[in-house]
Design brief:
The protein is built from 7 helices and 9 strands; from the N terminus they run αβααααααββββββββ. The protein has 205 residues and is of the alpha+beta class. A hairpin with a 2-residue loop joins β6 and β7.
Length: 205
């Protein structure tokens, strides 16, 4: 059963939110008091003014290369890893995408590979080079995001570290879900409320 869920989640990881079942408001029933909650209000899903991200400064250890951390956590093959301060070319994104499609997937690598899959799709959809000046902030911003794993745990998108189990994973309305959370979806946590990010991750632009 676990292997089947992991295989289904791997398909969602590669397909992305564009073809995987979308988060819908009817799945957003609050958790019991004192537990993590999932925002369902359209007003709550909109970033505050000014955009919260302008004030966000992740705590990054000195000399920490967050892009390298993401690739290391995803266990990317050495010959595919980007060097520090290098741009991401479309052909490199395609090579990374191909690797993601065939590399064995584990629960520990699921969340960072979800982030890498998003980065690959982002570059391929734009059809242009992503310079280091844009790539670095994106990798840093993944430090604030979590991913729902196929075992029901939320895990850090940057290092794969699991945090809290949100429930038993089950197929509901065409989506793999644990509680109110969609497997393979990126979420932003603010004040104990989780905000599901859509296909284009506008909060990361």
């Amino acid at each position: 059963m676990a292997a089947t869920l992991l295989a289904l989640a791997a398909c969602a990881l590669l397909a992305g939110c564009a073809t995987a079942p979308h988060w819908r408001s009817e799945h957003a029933r609050p958790h019991p008091p004192g537990a993590w909650r999932l925002s369902s209000s359209p007003a709550e899903l909109s970033p505050p003014v000014p955009p919260w991200w302008e004030d966000y400064r992740p705590l990054i250890p000195r000399e920490q290369d967050t892009c390298a951390l993401l690739q290391q956590s995803a266990q990317v093959d050495e010959h595919l890893r980007l060097a520090t301060n290098h741009s991401l070319q479309p052909q490199q994104a395609l090579a990374l995408w191909s690797w993601l499609a065939r590399a064995p997937l584990s629960l520990r690598t699921f969340a960072p590979r979800t982030a890498l899959a998003w980065l690959s799709r982002h570059v391929l959809s734009q059809g242009r080079r992503l310079p280091a000046s844009e790539l670095r902030p994106l990798c840093e911003r993944f430090l604030a995001l979590v991913v729902m794993r196929p075992d029901g745990y939320l895990a850090s998108a940057s290092n794969g570290q699991p945090s809290q189990r949100m429930g038993q994973v089950a197929l509901r309305d065409g989506a793999l879900m644990a509680g109110n959370f969609v497997v393979g979806r990126l979420y932003l946590s603010r004040g104990g409320i989780f905000y599901p990010l859509d296909d284009e991750l506008p909060a990361l632009q």
